[in-house]
Design brief:
Elements: H1 7-15, H2 20-32, H3 34-37, H4 44-60, H5 63-69
Length: 75
């Protein structure tokens, strides 16, 4: 499965202060080469779903996203 750059990958790369290319390599290795990283999910689809959930969790729980979601008080 070929994973390519998109908004979620770019946002995650910025969140962890890493280049998009490094994040893409990590995600591609996670999904396509489970033996390299000692991954537990048995299928490519399960690994893709797992890494996607992890990245979304990290993004949605980042301080930046929490600040954006916090309601503003009227002055």
């Amino acid at each position: 499965m070929k994973i390519s750059k998109g908004p979620m990958i770019e946002k995650f790369a910025a969140l962890i202060d890493e280049s998009v290319d490094v994040v893409l390599e990590w995600v591609n290795n996670y999904v396509n080469c489970p033996g390299l990283l000692d991954i537990q999910e048995p299928t490519e689809k399960e690994r893709m779903d797992s890494i996607k959930c992890y990245i979304l969790f990290r993004i949605h729980n980042s301080l930046t996203e929490q600040i954006k979601a916090k309601p503003r008080l009227a002055a």
